[in-house]
């Protein structure tokens, strides 16, 4: 997987089908700032016996992909979009994407949230 140029964050494994799912916060635009406010997050799948990845949820559909959870029984991937202020779900079987929770609108509310977060010292 030497072709990775994005900043991956969360990972989940499907042990039954031997595949890894991961979230990406997007590409690093300005390395010294590590800010991810571009709509270039993604969710990808990598088969554990192969060296290439398959993009499931493409760039532009969310911002700053974070934690990933895979429900093997339901074949659902759940993740957070920190800067997009959402919790999303992807159905691996039918390719459907659903926004489960949305607490604001990007970009208006994302910068406000991040300013509060960083000022709190977390």
Description of the molecule:
With 122 residues, the protein is mostly beta strands. It is built from one helix and eight strands. The chain has one helix spanning 108-119; strands at 6-14, 19-27, 42-47, 53-57, 65-71, 76-81, 86-91, 97-102. The chain has a four-stranded antiparallel beta sheet, with no helix packed on it. A hairpin with a 4-residue loop joins strand 6 and strand 7 (86-91).
Helix percent reads under 10%
Content of β-strand? 35-45%
* Count of beta strands: 8
Gross morphology: globular
- Uncertain parts: none
Structural class assignment? mainly beta
- Rg, Å, rounded: 15 Å
Mean of all residue-level pLDDT scores:
78
Biggest sheet record:
4 strands, antiparallel
Distance from N terminus to C terminus (CA atoms, Å) equals 32 Å
């Amino acid at each position: 997987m030497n072709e990775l140029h994005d900043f991956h964050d969360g990972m989940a494994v499907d042990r039954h089908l031997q595949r890894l799912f991961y979230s990406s916060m997007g590409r690093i635009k300005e390395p010294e700032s590590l800010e991810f406010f571009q709509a270039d997050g993604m969710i990808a799948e990598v088969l554990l016996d192969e060296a290439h990845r398959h993009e499931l949820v493409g760039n532009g559909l969310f911002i700053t992909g974070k934690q990933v959870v895979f429900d093997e029984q339901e074949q659902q991937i759940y993740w957070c979009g920190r800067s997009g202020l959402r919790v999303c779900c992807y159905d691996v079987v039918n390719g459907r994407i659903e926004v489960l929770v949305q607490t604001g609108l990007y970009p208006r509310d994302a910068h406000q949230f991040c300013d509060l977060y960083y000022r709190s010292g977390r």
